[in-house]
C-alpha cells in the first residue's frame, strides 16, 4: 500500500499505478489485485499534509520485485508513505484455523447436522421396534 500526495492529480496516480504494475511484471512478479481507494484523510499529518491518495496492491512474487518497488517508492516525491506486508504465511494460518473451526462446529451437539443424525438414529430405532 502506498499513499500519494493530495495535490497529485488522479491521472498522475493512475499513471503511477500503471508504472508500478509494469515494473512488477518486468521483475517477474504479478499483480493479483489493485484497489484504488481514492483521496482519504490521514490518521496523522505527514509532511504537513492531512490527506492522501490511497492505493493497495496485492503482489505475488519472489520478493526481488518488492525490493525494487520499495526503492522506487523511496525516491518518488509523489509517494509520502508506503508499507509492505507479507501475507502468505498469515493466509495459510488463517485457512488452517478456519478449517479447524468448521470441523469443530460440525461436531458440536447443538449443530443442526448433529441433530439430524440423532433424529435419524432415533427414527431407525422406532422403526425397528
Number of helices in the DSSP assignment: 4
Strand content: 25-35%
Q: Distance between the terminal alpha carbons, to the nearest Å?
A: 67 Å
Helix content: 40-55%
- Classify the secondary structure makeup into a structural class: alpha+beta
Number of strands: 4
Q: In the CATH scheme, what's the topology name of the largest domain? A: Alpha-Beta Plaits
CATH H-tier superfamily of the largest domain? Ribosomal protein S6/Translation elongation factor EF1B
Task: Walk me through this protein's architecture.
By secondary structure, this protein is an alpha+beta fold. It has two domains: 2-85, Ribosomal protein S6/Translation elongation factor EF1B (Alpha-Beta Plaits); 90-128, no CATH class. Helices cover 51% and strands 28% of the residues. The protein contains four helices and four strands; from the N terminus they run βαββαβαα. The chain has helices at residues 10-26, 64-75, 88-107, 112-128, and strands spanning 2-4, 30-46, 49-60, 79-82. α1 (10-26) runs antiparallel to α2 (64-75). The longest helix has 20 residues, at 88-107.
Amino acid at each position: 500500500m502506498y499513499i500519494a500526495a493530495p495535490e497529485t492529480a488522479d491521472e498522475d496516480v493512475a499513471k503511477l499505478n500503471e508504472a508500478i504494475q509494469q515494473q512488477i511484471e518486468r521483475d517477474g512478479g504479478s499483480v493479483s489485485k489493485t484497489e484504488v481507494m481514492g483521496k482519504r484523510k490521514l490518521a496523522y499529518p505527514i509532511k504537513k499534509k492531512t490527506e492522501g491518495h490511497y492505493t493497495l496492491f496485492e503482489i505475488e512474487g519472489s520478493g526481488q520485485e518488492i525490493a525494487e518497488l520499495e526503492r522506487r517508492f523511496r525516491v518518488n516525491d509523489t509517494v509520502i508513505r508506503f508499507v509492505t506486508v507479507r501475507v502468505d504465511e498469515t493466509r495459510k494460518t488463517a485457512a488452517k484455523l478456519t478449517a479447524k473451526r468448521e470441523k469443530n462446529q460440525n461436531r458440536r451437539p447443538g449443530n443442526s447436522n448433529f441433530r439430524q443424525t440423532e433424529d435419524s438414529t432415533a427414527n431407525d430405532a422406532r422403526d425397528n421396534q
